[in-house]
Amino acid sequence: MRKRKMLTLVAMGAVTIGGLAVAPLTFAAEAPRNGCADVQVLGARGTTERPGFGVLLGPLADRITDDLPQTVRATAVDYPASFNYTASVRQGVRDLTAKVASTSASCPDTQFVLMGYSQGADVVGDAIAGGLETGNVAAVLLFGDPTFTAGEPFNVTNGNRSGVFPRGRGRLAAVADRTQSFCNRNDRFCQGGTSLAAHLDYAKNIAGATAFTAERVS
What CATH class is the domain 2-216? Predict the structure, then answer.
């Protein structure tokens, strides 16, 4: 159902801004090369964006790295971010889950910041709802999430509708106090609206998302 509905939306003129320059797949600033960072940022880009963080999460990862006093390592989730939506999301969930497990095993004190844009937000949410270990997750940042559900306490929005694939209330309760989900009014995906421009307009939230992350990282 998700795949069929997403293909319909693509036919209507969706989805993102592929072909633009993006951040590299992995980068580190201040984090020790062969040691454990205080904070591990994991980001899942939007549909059709090239491998890396994408045009939104790249600048956000840079801002978090620059602003936090802790050592930070940032790594992109390795997944297709393709129109083969269901399979793509599942691959993203597997990679994100594996990265959290691997880092936790070798660096038990490292805190995680999980962030996703568009399809990438779906990846992050599915991983959490599917049982991802969240004990060391300090912050979750979602933008334009197709699974956005109206009425959740962590929503940051000027709209009152749910997304095209509403997740349902309470599915992210384990991290509700550590989450912000940004969704613009009439966003084609997180509000089931008609505006692609609204879906592309989240750079304005980078400062707020960074401040929230700084508050949540102890």
Answer: alpha beta
Q: pLDDT tens digits, residue range 125-174? A: 999 999 999 999 999 999 999 999 999 999 999 999 999 999 999 999 99
Task: Check residues 32 and 211 and name the one with the higher pLDDT.
Answer: 211
In angstroms, rounded to a whole number, what is the distance separating the alpha carbons of residues 13 and 43?
Answer: 25
β-strand partners of 108: none
Q: What's the CA gap between 144 and 171, in Å, rounded?
A: 17
The residue among 143, 148, 114 whose CA lies nearest residue 128 is: 114
Contact 51, 42 (CB under 8 A): no
pLDDT for res 12: 35
Task: Summarize the confidence of residues 14-28 as an average pLDDT.
Answer: 40
β-strands 26-29, 72-76: how paired? antiparallel
Q: How far apart are CA 2 and CA 4, in angstroms?
A: 6
Q: Which bin fits 168, alpha (ψ -120 to 50), beta or left (φ > 0)?
A: left
Show me where the domains of the chain are located: 2-216
- The secondary structure of residue 50, as a DSSP letter, is P
